[in-house]
Amino acid sequence: DLADLSDHLLRRIPAIRSATITMNVGKGAMTVAVVERYGFAQVRLPQMGGMLEVDREGMLYPAAGSRGTLPEIAGIGGPMLVPGRNLHEHPSGAGLMRILGSMPAEFPRPLKSIRVVRPDHFELVFAGNVVVKADPANFPHKTDHLKTIFAKIAAPAESNKVVSYIDIRFQRDVIAYTEEESSSSKRGSKKGR
């Protein structure tokens, strides 16, 4: 049965999103058309010595090779992180997917990685090594808010300061500047925005 064969392919090869199999009996030919999954993040698995990609549906599958532009998820592990499983099954999975799914491709600073501190606390690292402490609540609203913050810190008046981290977990944001670049104090400053 062609439907069974298609289901078998999807179970055996998690990188396949869909498969259509047709048979031309007159020509004695079978055609298999597959649609591959497209990763939008990767999970490093130190215990397995490899990487898994995750697509927008949360499906985990072996990384197809080096895709240096995909953000890397770190700080998670466990038996549910295997090819063919869904990231939503992990305690931090729903929050990770909410944050990753809300990041537009044209963001002011590209997202490099997300480290899971706790299921409700993530550290996002953007280009320029700007760390954003976040929780998964209120995304994608916080994504729009983060764009505004990045615009503020890129403004000429702030250009002589290097951002240490931005914390968007609370009502008022905290932007901390490194002490070497900040002229407001020797220990650095925190500035609510």
Would you kindly provide a written description of the structure presented here, covering whatever features stand out?
- The protein is an alpha+beta fold.
- It contains three helices and twelve strands.
- The protein has helices at residues 2-12, 93-102, 141-153; strands at 16-24, 29-36, 39-45, 50-55, 60-62, 72-74, 111-118, 121-126, 130-134, 163-167, 174-177, 189-192.
- The strands form two sheets. It has a ten-stranded mixed sheet with strand order 5-4-3-6-7-8-9-10-11-12, with no helix packed on it. The protein has a two-stranded antiparallel ribbon with strand order 1-2.
- The model is unreliable at 180-193 (pLDDT under 50).
Structure summary, number of beta strands: 12
Oligomer: single chain
Regions with little confidence, pLDDT below 50 for 5+ residues: 180-193
Major sheet: arrangement of strands: 5-4-3-6-7-8-9-10-11-12
Spatial separation of the terminal alpha carbons: 62 Å
